[in-house]
Amino acid sequence: MTLMRPKILFSLFTGVRGLPGIGPRLGNFLEKLAGPNSIDLCWHFPNGIIDRRFSPKIKEAPSGKVATLIIEVIEHVPPRVKRLPYKVLCGDETGVLTLVFFHAERDYLEKILPSGEKRVVSGKIEFFKDQVQMLHPDHIVELKKANEIQTVEAIYPLTTGLTFKPLIKAIKGTLEILPELNEWQDSAWLNKNAWPSWRKALLQVHNPKEISELLPNAPARERLAYDELLADQLALSIVRLSEKRKVGRSVGPKGTLLQNAISSFPYKLTNSQENALEEILIDMKKPIRMLRMLQGDVGSGKTIVAFLAMLRAVENGTQAALMVPTEILARQHFQTILTPSEKLGVKVAILTGQEKRKSRDRVLQDLKNGAISIVIGTHALFQKDVIFNDLALTVVDEQHRFGVHQRLMLADKGSAADMLVMTATPIPRTLMLCAYSDLDSSRLLEKPKNRKPVETRVVPLSKIDQVIERLKQALKGDAQVFWVCPLIEESELINLAAATSREDDLKQHFPAQVGLIHGQMKSAEKQRVMKSFLERRIKILVSTTVIEVGVDIPHANIMVIEHAERFGLSQIHQLRGRVGRGETSSSCLLLYAPPLTSNSRSRLNILRNSNDGFQIAEEDLKLRGAGELLGTKQSGLPNFKNVDFKSHQGLMLAARDDAKLILERDPKLTGERGKALRVLLYLFEKDSVIQTLRSG
Ligand code: ADP
Ligand code: MG
Known about the structure:
Blueprint: H1 24-33, H2 38-42, E1 48-51, E2 66-77, E3 86-92, E4 95-101, H3 106-112, E5 118-128, E6 131-135, E7 139-141, H4 146-149, E8 152-155, H5 164-176, H6 187-193, H7 198-206, H8 219-245, H9 257-264, H10 271-285, E9 291-296, H11 302-315, E10 319-323, H12 327-344, E11 348-351, H13 357-369, E12 374-377, E13 391-397, H14 404-411, E14 418-423, H15 429-435, E15 440-444, E16 454-460, H16 464-476, E17 481-484, H17 492-509, E18 514-517, H18 523-534, E19 540-543, E20 558-561, H19 569-576, E21 586-592, H20 598-609, H21 613-624, H22 626-630, H23 632-635, H24 649-665, H25 672-683, H26 687-695
Parallel strand pairs: 4-6, 9-14, 9-15, 10-12, 10-13, 11-12, 13-14, 16-21, 17-19, 17-20, 18-19, 20-21
Antiparallel strand pairs: 1-8, 2-3, 2-5, 3-4, 5-6, 5-7
Helix pairs in contact: 7-8, 8-24, 8-26, 9-11, 10-11, 15-24, 19-21, 20-21
């Protein structure tokens, strides 16, 4: 694929290791810091400036400030003992400046600072005793080069082991060979925003003159952010168009299975559920492929909606699959669906990769010959040997945990199978439009009527004794408690250690009432623990975040979250949704370790004051940005380089409309602007999308 990259971009896609003057060690650091190619260095933006334009006389140089001074070298004063500094006395007509060096090499210093000659030095001025000093000047150059350093210097984020000079050299080197690319942005739009060309924008970003130029809303930065957003939106739209173009199949009403199921439920569907179901059924009936996202807070009843949609497939003699991210969840959904399905005479199976060989073989066989109508499973569902007789609907639960690719892979199991993705992480509208613009969306805005709001309290960890007292009271009744331990993303083992020690602790207070569940446990054991919790043989279930997704224990009514300040808002909201499902009133205790930053405090307060997942998600987006909100890694959310979610939301929407318009006018991107846009797509490494353009 890379072979098709236009020649003009070749220089930007040379490996940083191949750059002149960059050895393997440095290459490693650069790769770690910015990325593998020169272009990644271009996207590595400065985060500060040093102003070296200030050029006072020695007498006027203020302590603590960076200054560039013209001085004459008076005398070298080597240290009497090695650990003392080497000093070079310099002066101008107003006073003396002492340059101070530790671990100095005399020969070198005498070469760059010859006695009796004038030099330009730049660095931070410090007063020591009554001396004016400069410790390790950043620059020492000859007079004729004064202009080169008497400027504003960009400061870059670094990584350990890498210093400024080689980084700046590498970036400068790349900027020097920056090609002039044909403009891909609409000229009226550029003018309206007063944005520079792509090349100028990059040069400006890397040569800031004022602090304000470092802000995300500086014109050059906005332009580059918009480029990236447009590339992303174009890519998504192209994929979406090609997906849509794939012929779907019409799965309409047939028989009474679906109706029977609805009337067999002990409750009425909420209005939201009815609306969402209708939207889904309309899509299924259309002869094009459905790509729809069903969003709803935890407990809003998505599973039932999905089940009903699956029954529509079943009544047409086709199959449906429900894919979930964890095994526990697969079992849970299986249990939920099993009873009503059996009543309706629909055959359901489970496939998680944990089954014994023999039963797995049987499931595979029955999927192939069509004896099984609905299958529920994990990633195991998209293995090669899973062959469906006739898969018409794929439902993916908690989709942000699956990448886009996995999602599409499962879709490919059925010929033109409809696809419904469900998520309990409410996604703010802007993000929805951008990150998931390849999906239509239905939202469950209301909860089933019997649901009681969860009372949330924010408590410092130091009051844990009181919390335990409270639990003792509650456990005298028929309370059940989820106790979630701190999340430390990098290490499941540390998570486990924390959970285990909390378990021990709680066992002291509540003998024989505490169970532990975590990600490292064998599945049979997890199930055993879940079962005893479900059957109320244990009252407190300590866990790492494995319970986060979907688990339904109707009588659990207290949720304790330790180190709540470490969780994302939406994540806590999801956890909290685990309680409040039954008859009794329920509560959520957010334990935090003081001191809280003001940001953390506002975040926890949002949770205390709101039970609305969509609102919480909007707030979370404002406070943390999108990557963290959805967890960039799992989200399938593009890992933007130049985009700042807080500042560039408006641009996101514009890019989306722009992309739509572009593809309406020039769907193959063959016009003049289209060609330039192809370069843009390559620039942001959307090579595979260009494949789609060719083949579609
Ligand atoms: P979600 O998947 O959105 O978290 P579920 O589909 O698991 O929610 O539903 C949560 C609980 O609410 C389940 O026990 C389900 O049986 C129940 N439920 C679903 N829809 C309704 C309804 N309309 N009225 C009452 N209870 C409902
Ligand atoms: Mg669910």
